[in-house]
Design goal:
The protein has helices spanning 3-6, 40-47, 60-70, 80-83, 136-147, 165-178, 254-259, 269-277, 314-321, 336-343, 347-365, and strands at residues 22-24, 30-34, 51-57, 74-77, 98-101, 121-122, 131-132, 151-157, 181-189, 200-208, 216-218, 224-226, 287-288, 304-305, 376-378. The protein is an alpha/beta fold and 386 residues long. The longest helix has 19 residues, at 347-365.
Length: 386
């Protein structure tokens, strides 16, 4: 990363940036991404200086966007259940530094049906095949066992750590152990990592056992794991620091009319409806206030701006998700960018984790000299991250 630009910011990576201003170094190691969506996590690895070879994705619309932005060497549009059985995978995929994946997680989301949906076939939207989503994590571990990357990183929802899902986590640990990996998990919040959004996610990070000996320590009386510190304390970024001057004018809609009655204490559309009509509207769309960190961007409900009562603009969502402003979302609708951002790991969240994996593990395994954090050299100064 350009040092002069970095010194103007309080963060390791800029949340306001463009692809045209970045040159990716690709010198930290090789990565392959599964459940790649439109390429959010891939963007993060590239920011951190990794060379992302390609992806596996089931959604044709998402892989179209992935190809448009990343021009992958390898792109496989198929379910992971068939991908993991392929006998024609290139040699490079058996020599990975990191295998990355975000197995679909709606069955465990706190916003979903949770236990009622476990074991059922589901799909996210038209164009996707139906799958038993809660099995996909184990298909991903099967792939790791086959490819034997040095490190495996898997992202999922906070709901995995709650209630009966804890047994699922125990199974994840058992399967990683059988695949030849030490695994640990962290609950991380993107808002403490330089992303302008409160987004808590669980990250399972595993190192291959035959490489782990120099890093092992006693985490407690009964557990030996490779030492990895993931503590992030970057200052929060409030919505008012970056929101666009004008949002989308939906004042003619039912929700737009509700917003005309907003008051400072309203956090979501339903708060307005309860106050005016004393009934639950079912409108869960969040209202973003200038002095707050934005709530988690989801693929569904539109978010609204308290500032002017308008719906959030595409640029609002792009900045909140830490995607580059010139990213091609291949959208045929107004919700296209938001859908992809809501489904993706924020690039900067991935970049911060990838940085630490490189600094604490891979640089030592590979014999690389320790370099300055970050692997994207920005050719122009960042505009507003001070």
């Amino acid at each position: 990363m350009n040092k002069k630009s970095f010194e103007k910011t309080k963060h390791n990576f800029p949340y306001k940036w463009t692809l045209k201003d970045a040159v990716f170094t690709k010198d930290k190691g090789k990565v392959f991404s599964c459940f790649a969506c439109g390429g959010g996590s891939t963007m993060g690895y590239k920011l951190a200086g990794f060379d992302v070879l390609g992806c596996n994705e089931i959604d044709p619309k998402m892989i179209e966007a992935y190809k448009a932005n990343h021009n992958p060497k390898y792109a496989y549009l198929e379910p992971i259940q068939t991908f993991k059985l392929r006998e024609d995978l290139p040699k490079e995929l058996y020599e990975l530094d990191i295998l990355d994946g975000s197995p679909p997680c709606s069955s465990f989301s706190m916003a979903g049906n949770r236990e009622k949906d476990w074991g059922k076939e589901k799909k996210f939207r038209e164009g996707q095949a139906e799958q038993i989503l809660d099995n996909l994590f184990f298909d991903f571990i099967d792939l790791a066992k086959k490819l034997q990357p040095k490190v495996v990183i898997a992202e999922n929802v906070k709901g995995l750590l709650v209630g009966e899902a804890k047994e699922y986590v125990r199974k994840i640990y058992r399967e990683f152990d059988l695949a030849g990996y030490y695994v640990q998990h962290w609950l991380l919040d993107a808002s403490k990592m330089g992303v302008p959004q409160k987004r808590e996610r669980v990250f399972f990070i595993a190192m291959r056992k035959d490489l782990a000996e120099p890093f092992l320590y006693n985490a407690d009386m009964f557990t030996v794991v490779p030492k990895l510190e993931l503590t992030f304390k970057e200052p929060e970024i409030k919505f008012g620091e970056y929101r666009t001057k004008v949002g989308k004018d939906y004042s003619h809609t039912e929700r737009g009319k509700l917003m005309q009655h907003r008051i400072k204490t309203d956090k979501c559309m339903n708060d307005i409806n309860q106050r005016l009509y004393n009934k639950n509207s079912g409108f869960n769309a969040m209202i973003w206030h200038d002095e707050d960190v934005c709530s988690t961007v989801t693929a569904g409900e539109t978010n609204w701006r308290y500032f002017d009562g308008m719906a959030c603009s595409d640029e609002d969502y792009i900045l909140t998700g830490s995607f580059p402003l010139d990213y091609d979302f291949k959208s045929n609708s107004e919700s296209g960018a938001k859908y992809m951002i809501g489904m993706s790991v924020p690039p900067i969240m991935t970049a911060r984790i990838a940085d630490e994996i490189y600094e604490q593990w891979l640089s030592k395994l590979n014999g690389f000299e320790k370099t300055e954090a970050g692997g994207a050299n920005f050719l122009k100064s960042f505009e507003t991250n001070a």
